[in-house]
Amino acid sequence: xxxxxxxxxxxxxxxxxxxxxxxxxxxxxxxxxxxxxxxxxxxxxxxxxxxxxxxxxxxxxxxxxxxxxxxxxxxxxxxxxxxxxxxxxxxxxxxxxxxxxxxxxxxxxxxxxxxxxxxxxxxxxxxxxxxxxxxxxxxxxxxxxxxxxxxxxxxxxxxxxxxxxxx
Length: 167
Hints:
Blueprint: H1 14-43, H2 45-49, H3 54-64, E1 69-79, E2 89-98, H4 104-109, H5 111-124, H6 132-151, E3 158-166
Antiparallel strand pairs: 1-2, 2-3
């Protein structure tokens, strides 16, 4: 009896090299596409091609935007609340920013109430509370809240200081 033929020796087939090439393509192609897409997106080409231009929409909205109205608040002088009973004063001149022009008349009509609320708040302030930019910021926020309460239902968007003197 003859012996069975020996099994053929394993030889490298081109399939293994093709497998590595396919693996590289499976990784390189998506990464390349992502990089190209990201570059096109951030350069603005892809959003333009897709019709997603936000800049044009914002430009149209800005052209249609209504400019705010500024109303002067008469000059206020208030005696500050000092602990050592030494007289201390604040002189304040401000402007009120009203976002809607149709509310300007309502704000002007409520000006006596607005002045009273601001004056009352200023009289309770201490000189040290008004020092620095943080003190000015807090004063602006408090006066804005009082202004909105005084002119409701109209809206005040900002209180702008044109002059502030603390003595």
